[in-house]
Amino acid sequence: MKPTPISENIYCLSIHDRRTRLFEGLWPIEKEGITYNSYLIRDEKTVLIDLCKELFQQEYLGELKALVDPASIDYLVVNHMEPDHSGALRAFRELAPQAVILGTPKAVKMMDDFFGLKENIRAVSDGEELELGRHKLRFVSAPMVHWPETMVTYETVSQTLFSCDAFGGYGIPEKGIFDEEYPDLAYFEGESLRYYANIVAAFSKPVLNAGEKLAGVPLRMVAPSHGLVWRKDPGRIVDLYMRWSSYGKGPAEKGVTLLHGSMYGNTEKMVASVKNGLEAAGVPVDAHDVTTTPVSYILPSIWKNQGVVIGAPTYEGTLFPTMQLVLYMAEIKRAFNKQAIYFGSYGWGGGAVRFLKNQFEKMNWELGETLEFAGQAREENLKEAYEMGKRFGKLILEG
Ligand code: FEO
Description:
alpha/beta; 2 domains; 5-stranded mixed β-sheet; binds MU-OXO-diiron
């Protein structure tokens, strides 16, 4: 994609990645894609902020060269060393050996670790400023958003925050890079939440810390390295990220994620009854079959909802493994402090509830009612499931 001016003498170079099947080798993005946004500021000093994934470095450097002679770039700011942004670093260094590369002290070490780069690199300190002429950059350390070396860069004249992963999202803005080009932002906000739950959620406290650090800084534009540039309403994505981060401590939204996985349909038969009960209570319900929906799409639902219903059978004396995987991913993403209920079938003896009790201790989830049945779900089980769903829905709404 051609560079887009986002402000006077500031350009966005956005690579549209439609080739990567799994982001970080984990998260499906085949349908949605992702962008790697890099930014160029032209002034008395010319500065590039962040790069892109190595796979796209030829395309990226071609676009860069069409915009500016790499030999005239004075600085490269590396906000974050994860290779989706730093992958083109060695190729950039060959093209622009004169450019001073700037990053936090930890980023400087990583430049050597990842790329064997040591020359013409300078560590910047938290709050340090760099005069470019008319523009001025301020570097703000943001450890663990999303790696320990991460910082964000603020440009004081345009009041633009180059936030790298923070405030980013999946999805390719086909019509243009700005939020103002999309009257309905629901898709991008949804993909930002999925990105948050997949990539950032485990670091919710550091996100809140960074938010506090930046509170009071005037923002006319939020320019992340993934997804939209928020120019019409920069506060919108900041508010969303702060709200999502707060769910790490709880409470989350008054809604329920209804998860089920079934081997032969006996547990599945209960799903509609539980769902009807939840809906009768008036609580919003988001249902997923864990055997067909990748966990990437389930995590945002778990993250934002206070209630979770687990419907899965006992499998060889423990919980159905596909459901275990979902709970394990929720655990490592630190989706803590939820309320949950359980229903499921067993063949000759339970075990699923025992697993849940252990697992929920690690996540500080409260296990409420459980409804286990041998073999098939009978009429009375379906009625119980409805009532259990209704009680749980009320509990979440009243909580
Ligand atoms: Fe987009 Fe943590 O890298």
